[in-house]
Amino acid sequence: MSDGGAPTPEKGKLALYWAASCGGCEIAVLGIDDKVLKVAEAFDIVLWPCVMDGKVRDIEKMPDKSIDLCLFNGAIRTSEQEYMAQLLRRKSKVLVAFGSCAAEGCIPALANMNTREEIFQTAYHDTPSTDNPDGVRPQIETEVPEGTLHLPLFYDTVKTLGQSVEVDYYLPGCPPEPDRIWDALVAILTGQLPAPGSVIGATTTVCDTCPRTRNEKKIKEFKRTWEIIPDPDTCLLEQGVVCCGIATRAGCGALCPTVGSPCIGCYGPNEGVVDFGARMMTALASVIDSQDPDEIDRIIQEGIPDPIGSFYRFGLANSLLRRKALAHNGDGRVAEPA
Amino acid sequence: MTEKVGVYICHCGTNIAGPVDVEEVARWAKENLDGVVLARDYRFMCSSLGQELIQEDIKNEGLTRVVVAACSPHLHEKTFRTACSKIGLNPYLTQMASIREQVSWVTEDRAAATHKAKMMVAGAVRRVQLQEELQPTEVPVNPNTLVVGGGIAGIQAALELADAGHKVFMVEREPSIGGHMAQFDKTFPTLDCAACILTPKMSDVGLHENIELLSYAEVDSLSGFVGNFDVRVRKKARYIDEDACTGCGICIEKCPKKVVDEVFEAGLGYRKAVYRPFPQAIPKFPVIDRDTCIYFERGTCKACEKFCPTEAIDFEQTDTYLDLNVGNVIMATGYDLFDCGKIPQYGYGRLANVFTSLEFERLCNAAGPTEGHILLRDGVTEPQSVGIIHCVGSRDKQHHAYCSAVCCMSALKFGHLVMEKTGAEVYSFYIDMRPLHKNYEEFYDRLLQEGMHFIRGRVAEVTDAARLPGEDGKLIIQAEDTLIGKQRRIPVDMVILLGALQPRFDAKETGLKFGVSAGLDGWFTERHPKLDPVATMTDGVFIAGTCQGPKDIPDSVAQGAAAAARVQGMISKGTVLIEPIVATIEEARCSGCRICNTLCPFNAIEYLEDKAVSYINPALCKGCGTCVAACPAQAISGAHFTNDQIFAEMEGLLYDVIGSNGATVKSPQPALEPA
Amino acid sequence: MSESAFEPKIVGFLCNWCSYRAADLAGTARMKYEPNIRIIRVMCSGRVDPTFVLKALSLGADGVMLAGCHPGECHYIEQNYKTIRRFKMLKHTLRALGIEEERVRLQWASAGEGALLASAINEMVDQVRELGPLYWPGNWADNEGSQDAIQALPREHAEAMEVPA
Fold first, then answer.
1. Structural domain includes residue C38
2. pTM to 2 decimals?
């Protein structure tokens, strides 16, 4: 950042925002180290709630398309976040879904396995640490003597940024690796960008950068990580560990498998893939070493007790089905007449 | 989309136009589907006038894609592809919608049928716009052919090809060619002596300048693709130098070790440790059976070596491998006989005078262990009554559900031979009498006149436990005679079990080796059950004879000749077109995870160590798409069945659910201005 | 169609060699079956990517049928065993997402089993009709009241500005 002087006309404007996220992406931005100074040279930062004070109403007053670049992290889980997404979309020339939450929903979107009602029930009633004798729940509007108080609407279904507004570029990762962030910034600054709507990243998967030796695969049993001490040199998947490196976009440098921990898929699917979980399901199933339906069932049930957690840990909101069925969905609805 | 799609709705007379409002479908397609520039309905699209209609439109209207909604693509896809390609439109830019088989013929309600037809047309229209031009590749065909199996089917195939001037390698597992037919005595319905008609053909094979006979050998591996197969053959050690051996047989004469011949004599006779299965064996060279030879057992003997006039015995011989290049393969690997011991109530293996059909063939055969005398197991007594049981292991859900096709006629043949040679009474226990081919019914009539007894009913058991007078010392066949509705006990001296024909014990492994699939019952699967009976899913690999299913000698010979004709066609043409519907790996997207490496039964996928990526050999790929669906990185795409094409078809088929713009539901918030 | 007449939309993926031929045979034999299935031909059931099933459901199909050659009878030797494995894996996931068993079905049908295929289609259509519409896209179109809540925000911001400092 500059030393507080007035923005020079040639400098671009940069906004960083967080919605439903953990904050890791904010820290990842700082992971580019001293290159952040170069960012400050190139941009004036107009909004970065994590780091500096700023008012939404100031952004609201800015002319449309006056922000050159907005790095938006976090998923969309409330009306306030959706509003901010819409606002920043309107004000920004280039909107980047920064990190896994914005790109594909990430951990916040695992809430799509439940309903708002269930989540409130847990958070405001069931947890042992909750003391809520009056059963108070968040209300969108609350009347108090001074007037009406507003809280954002908490959505049933967490959305990705792209499901809320048009996104120019996606930068995957939980969080994105600093080197990839810098690559993306350079690409944006120099205008060497892929077609709008695309992911800035590799077109191959983590295996490509994994140092482990890979052989033909036949899996008789899937193992949880605590069940084995994996051989340090061979492919984890061949040892039965559900490693998502086969389906996960390269970009991290295979950090996890390199140190013996399976890839959990934080960099999302490879280029062109519409459903990450489907890729994992089909690939793993294809190499199950059995032709007996009952044994296949057993291998799957025992080895993968939580398919959503295994296959959609990062991508549930961005998957084809997006969430668990709502109990009332479809009731009374009739397909439209021809 | 910039494609110009022409849609053609076939009336198929009234087959489609009756239950479906074809004019309405055409009108609807033109009005509602993006990309459709014209939609016509016509009485018979497959007629030459119908095809010309399309060709005219391609020419005059500049169509770039064609959809024909008519019958199943299995019937006329080729017709319309050819019609389009004749006028210069790549054949893969056409798509059919099966509105006859899947709509008009199966739907009761006209409105529902018309609606479904529209949806199917929408699917085809969406899909066809994403289809891509594809070109088959042309490869030369090596004129040499591999024939696997030297039974009558293989012999016929080999001779047809060799006589036409083409080189044939024949690989036979046993020391001699001839197969099961060489073991038989007579052949139905003409009662020709099997050897008399078979051995001339065997010797033709042995002497033919175009046939290289590799007996006592097995195919070790097969790789490559149609027109260009690489075959590795393992020639098992014979311990006889074939170049030196004259086939004089002195070694056999001098060999002191006699063993039961379980193969050719079906366990009824003996052979030596060095042996030829039968006197007319082709090739003439004997084989030393390592498992029973005294020298191999104890280190001394070598009687054969001492007496061999040409020093042809070579105890140091080892298995050798031969690498061959062939353009086509004909598999004629034959059948095994059902193990009749698996049906214990029929007593085979427990009751001495229960015989299998193959044993009986050897008993009848003048060259067999009894010199053609039909005798009980004691070797001296002629039976006075014989029971023949059909369908042992066939038409039996416990074992094989299928009919073995040859047993009824074998039973008639056996009945005739028993009566002719011994005058015994013969009882046949059958479920249905199935003398299906030319002159077979007449043979049945002949046996009826000759006095063979026919009892319609499945035999419950064969026992030696006598209960009634006259049963002592006999085998009693207990069966229900379903024609008179009574249980019967027929005491006989001899029982012949007509065991089922079943796939070779190693058929599955063989199928995998050659890329040939098998049905649930284990017989190799032909490409089409009616219209392509000797080809298989692997181009250039053909099947003939009983490896494809139970059949008799005339049918086996016909298939052998048919397979040879198919191969000759390939050789005459000189080149073969390889289907462009194959899978491809995009190298830049492949991370070399190797998920796909074990998935291809045709071994089309290989891993390139140097590049650390996988590669699909297009000539080996059969286009099934299993690897495409498996790739976790989506680095594999399947031509003509791409994800996008299938998604587009799905969107069209669900037109009434999702609407024309492809949006599933109305957008949850107002559209925002674009970036 | 009236309110009460829910007609399921079912997408079928049929392999070229067995089940598609079974559909041909059902036609040739004029076996009447429910018109609710719409068939996509693939070369082998092994081509059916779980994505296809998910896609069909996400587009609004009420059910998906996969059909192929009987195990052991695959025209590509053994690819339908991979179909079994993938189907089981997919069902495991679909169960977790709350999709009823009957909505996604794997049906073996050889080329000669037109009648079997037709009756399987009828059975599935009946079962899905009984279950009612799936209407999957409705699951996420349902963040009820979100529009009002979003539009309330700039109003609030404006109001907040009016509060005297």
1. yes
2. 0.83
